[in-house]
Amino acid sequence: xxxxxxxxxxxxxxxxxxxxxxxxxxxxxxxxxxxxxxxxxxxxxxxxxxxxxxxxxxxxxxxxxxxxxxxxxxxxxxxxxxxxxxxxxxxxxxxxxxxxxxxxxxxxxxxxxxxxxxxxxxxxxxxxxxxxxxxxxxxxxxxxxxxxxxxxxxxxxxxxxxxxxxxxxxxxxxxxxxxxxxxxxxxxxxxxxxxxxxxxxxxxxxxxxxxxxxxxxxxxxxxxxxxxxxxxxxxxxxxxxxxxxxxxxxxxxxxxxxxxxxxxxxxxxxxxxxxxxxxxxxxxxxxxxxxxxxxxxxxxxxxxxxxxxxxxxxxxxxxxxxxxxxxxxxxxxxxxxxxxxxxxxxxxxxxxxxxxxxxxxxxxxxxxxxxxxxxxxxxxxxxxxxxxxxxxxxxx
Length: 396
What we know:
Layout: H1 11-24, E1 81-82, E2 91-96, E3 102-107, E4 115-120, E5 127-128, E6 136-141, E7 147-152, E8 159-164, E9 171-172, E10 179-185, E11 191-198, E12 203-210, E13 218-222, E14 224-228, E15 234-240, E16 248-256, E17 259-260, E18 264-267, E19 273-279, E20 285-293, E21 308-317, E22 324-325, E23 333-338, E24 344-350, E25 353-359, H2 374-378, H3 385-391
Antiparallel strand pairs: 1-25, 2-3, 3-4, 4-5, 6-7, 7-8, 8-9, 10-11, 11-12, 12-13, 14-15, 15-16, 16-17, 16-18, 19-20, 20-21, 21-22, 23-24, 24-25
């Protein structure tokens, strides 16, 4: 573990931990009335760590103390295909190449700190792209498939880096003293969106950067895990609500001439956190994960030491309608990512090990993927929120 940094144990647990942290503080906070100029920018307070049965390693977010991994037994509503096969450590943060033939992901299969790996989706051989002693996570293909952007702690705080698939050393993209994570390319490949931790405001912000103009960085909103549409200037992300259950919900922000329009909430739930959104290759659908903390029906502010009771993969149309569950609520599945063949890849915990799996939604003629189970239907997110915003004149 590294002091004054984010600590965690894997792809699934890192996602759940950031929810517990934000929910525990009531979501995003407003900046104090008066702030003294800091001499140096300190990292956010270290998050609590935990003892686990698997290797402990650094990714981005802390876990809660004195809790061990729950032995999930995932199932799926459609046949699942396994794509990575580590028996030690964890494979997570998967992203697919534009042609759908390759996948890049973070893994602790060889080291206690995660590195970035590349493999064909159906192969067994893996190529290790990074081998820095610090943590490298959240890789993302460029639109031309020739480069990988990722978040790394190698410079002493979280920054965005890039590495080419033709070899060579990784190059640093962001240089601020703030933490910057989760890169995603615009369709033109010349712009990038990521999230930055603003210490003064004590919140995660979404930033856009013109890659050939380092000084062009601009904040466009508040949220986490932004993902740029592969076909247009539209970004989906998650944001914590500041009232009610304070769960994360899924939002979309459209850009016009580079300027953000009013954000649109696509999906929300009073009983689940909706996290890690992504786009289908045609930009018509949005994938996301759901996660339950504590006991069903128990508000997060009343949950002591929350851990996930389950996590599922869902999809919906880009306007927030037609929410469909790809998994049946029987296990832990997180971090969905679409491929050009319309398979949805994600991390799944089976047999106590996190590996990459996929499932293919049945989207022909707009048909549902499957009829949700009674259990999953009871927790179905609100639908069509984005449409209602647009009808009221507030949408983008």
